[in-house]
Structures are given as C-alpha cells and as structure tokens.
Amino acid sequence: MNTDQPIIQIHDLYYRYEKENVLEDINLSIPSGAFLAVVGPNGSGKSTLLKLILGLLKVQTGEIKVFGEDINRFKERHLIGFVSQKANSFNTGFPATVYEVVASGLTKKVGLFKFLTSGDKQKVFEAIESVGLTKFINRNIGDLSGGQQQRVFIARALVSDPRLLILDEPTVGVDAQHVQSFYEMLEQLNKDLGITLLLVTHDIGTISNKVTHVACLNKHLYFHGNSHEFEHFQEHGVSEFYGYDVNLLTHEHHHHHEGVKR
Hints:
- There is one protein chain.
- Helix 6 (about 175-190) links the parallel strand 7 and strand 8.
- Helix content is about 35%, strand content about 25%.
- The chain contains 10 helices and 10 strands.
- The chain has a domain at about 10-90 and about 160-260: P-loop containing nucleotide triphosphate hydrolases (Rossmann fold), CATH 3.40.50.300.
- The chain has a 6-stranded mixed β-sheet with strand order 6-7-8-3-9-10, sandwiched between helices. Strands 2-1-4-5 form a 4-stranded antiparallel β-sheet, covered by helices on one side.
- The protein is α/β, with parallel strands linked by helices.
- Helix 4 (about 120-130) packs across helix 5.
C-alpha cells in the first residue's frame, strides 16, 4: 500500500435523495497523516459524505477511492475506524468496564468469544492509554462522563489499528470545559500515532488551531485547504457560505455551538 497516495480521493461526487441533490460536484483529496475538519450547517450533506466514505451508502455518481482502491471494491475495513455521535446516547446502564468495551473492538479480528492473546490485551491497554483513561480501565462505562465515554469509543476504534479514524461530531454531549482537552487528545493521536483523522464538527473556533486541513461543505465544497488558508477564508468567505453572519464561530464553545446550529 502506497503511503504517499491520498488516503481518500473523491472525484465529481454527486448524491441525491429522491430528486434532491444533497452533494454536488465534490472533489476532495485527503493526504495521509492529515487532520481534516469538515464543517457546514445542518443539512449540508456532512453525514451523507461520511456514509459514502464508510461504504454505508452506495456511490451514485462520481468516484470515491480509499487507500487507492475504489470504495466498492475496498475490503480492508479494519483500516478505517469510526466513532459516531450515537456513542453519546449509549445505554449507561450497560454493565461493561472500559476494558471490556475497548476489547470488544477486536471482535472483528478475533471473534466475539475467543480468548484474547497477551498481544491483544497489550493493544487494549495501549488504546486506553492513548485516550488518557488508564486509571479508569476497570470502571463501569456507565459511571463515566460523556466526554470520557466518547474517549472509550475512540479507544475501541483504535484497538484494531486503523490508519484512518472518522469522527462524527464527537463532542456532542461533552462538557464545554472538556472540549479543549478532547481535541488536544485527537491532536496527539494524529501527531504521535500518525493516524489520519476526518472530523465532522461544529466547533471550528475551538479546533482551527489543532487541525491541518479544513473543508467547508454546504451541498458544494466551498473551501478545502490547509488551516492557514482557512484563516484567510474565514475573514472573507464564511458568512456567505453559511448564509448568515458567523462571527460567533470564534467565541467560546458554549456560545458558538448555538451560533452554528441554526
């Protein structure tokens, strides 16, 4: 597998539900090792784009390649980890420890009831350590805060050694004061482990200094570039892209959340 090639390449992508296009003329290339934030108003096609990249929806028009291979033929699904928003609505009464939840991420590889080897157990410990939850390893997941639970699901995705981690608004349900440290953890995963991150987020003010690239999506791709180029775009193009003034974007988390979700 060629590490120089982009991890995701999207060419001339259109997608429609019934007669309505939700994505039009999307061309996007994500290099290996990038930390890309995808931002856009509600209903802008972000979730649809994720589902297409994950192979949960079939490409209608255009092309998506992951790791150089057409998405329809791509078999090495373990290379892509996914953490959904739904992790936050997890049944907190579920009687499982942090260790057990993270270990369950290996079931694709080892089968649900096979015993874990010492190497597998080591992977579980390392994944938990990489999200900063070692001291909670035997804690019931229902006893953790929303942000800690979300870290557990990231560790669960990491345990099968993905090269690409996709996160769909992972800070929904995370306390405002913990959002910054949550993104710092993602930045470490990107820099230290070299994992390519694709993040859908409303927190652009909080995260713009952490990511390497930004894509602004509202049916069309209005902007795609590195974070330095995005600063310039923010000054000139963002309010036009959202359709209203978004100076709220750079305020503290609890303000700008309302600002973008209208």
